[in-house]
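Prompt: For my understanding, could you write out one protein's sequence and backbone structure tokens?
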Amino acid sequence: NGCQLLRLVARYVFQRSVQYIEDRINQARDQHMEEMRHSKEKIQKLKSLKDEDDRTVKHQQQQLNLLQTKIKAAGQAGKAGPKSAADLEKKLLDRQEQVETLKTQVHALTKSNETE
């Protein structure tokens, strides 16, 4: 009787120990799987952010290229025009004289129409 009781107690303790170990293994596996899921989600998010950054960089590069093209075109146009500040000033004075001449002509025409 004493031996049987001892065997039953030993078997019970052994089964409980096995069950405890299996539970710990399952907990560890579940925790590992959860960490893996979080890691995969984080990787997906980082890939998405990288793709978005790549698209942004590509767009900004295209904008930069367009701006450089416009600057070159403006530089070429500037080369075709007056070459110095003195030339620009002379051109401005010529335009001002033309405006004054036109004002005088308009004034003369207005007087001429009033007298008729």
